[in-house]
Every structure is written in C-alpha cells, then in structure tokens.
Amino acid sequence: MPDAPELNLDNILGKEKQPELSRLDPDFFEQASRLIKELESEKSRAEPDSKYDEDITEQLEVANGQIRDIIQVRMRKIVGIAESQSKERDKSDTPAMTHEEIKFYNALFSLMTAWRQGYHDQFGKRRVKKETGIAPGRKEPEKPEVPKENKKDIGKDFTVVRLLRNVPTFVGMDNRNYTLAKEDVVMVPTVNAKALITRKAAAQIVMK
Asked: Which of 44, 74, 112, 197 has the smallest count of CB within 10 Å of its CB?
C-alpha cells in the first residue's frame, strides 16, 4: 500500500463518532485524493487477478468508503453548526474545518441567515404583533422595515456537489459568481449543479 502515514482514516472516523466536529487537517481532501491516486496507481501495476491485485483493490474500496463516510458525517455536523449560528447571525470560528469545508460552511451560513431574514423573521414579527395587544393609551410601535436586499427570491433550490475538475467562473441562478476548483465541496443552485454534473465536472453529494 502507498506510504501515507499522515492520513489515518480509521483514526479520523473514530473521532467523528463524537458529537463535536473533530479538528481535521486543512488539506485533508488533497491528502485523501493523493492517497486514492496512489492506490489506483498501485493497482494499475499489479498483475490482474493476483493476490496483490486483490489486496490493493480491497484497500482502494475501503479507503473510498471511509472517505465518503467522513464527508457525510462531517457535513451533517457542519450543517448543524451553520443552522445554529445563523439564528444568532454570528458566524462561528472554523479552525476544525478543511479549506473546502470552510467554503461549504460559509455558503450555508449566508443562505440560512438570508432565509431567516427574508422569511422566518417576517412571519415571526407578524405573529408576535397579532398575539401581543397594544394597551389603551399607548402608542403602537413602529413597524420594522425589512431591507430591500432581503426581499429577493432566496428560496431557490440548492445542491451540494464535489468538483471533479476546475471550472471557469460562472454566474449562478442566485446571481452569485462562482469560481470553483477541483475537490471543492460547495452548495450551488440546483440548475447549475445539474449542468456541472451533466458535464462530468462535478458529482452530487447526498446527505443521509
């Protein structure tokens, strides 16, 4: 098996059994990609149907499965962090995340915060006003205005994808500029995600 002592997938999975997001090397995805490439290279040099070929094939399948599991469990935790922090509109520190996960977290935080500002908070204010009467003789408080930028359509569907190659900057359906590189894990509008997947430029990541 290729020498990759800096990447212990068993140890990482063990830490991810805890509820907290464990600290992961910022370059984890780059290291994981290098490990898979090394295993694939070893397999290509192995004699077909030999014992060594079987061993490398098994190691490759296990490594791929472990990396997918790590991505899935950490994604769920990051979604929970972004959801919690967006309530307070106070972005969390991200020392435990990889470079790609920070991009994913920032996109989630922005989307969730905008959603709350544009919809959730508006309905919450209306409900409080309806349930809370104004005492006789007291002036009704001024109705807070919702900033215009929060009234735009922010309910578009988004899909999480992993980039399989570098993609030139493009404008998404949400009118945002996206500059994506290979191995980035990012949330993009579903329409754009389908286009990237069709072009084999990205693979969808499905949350369980």
From this structure: 44
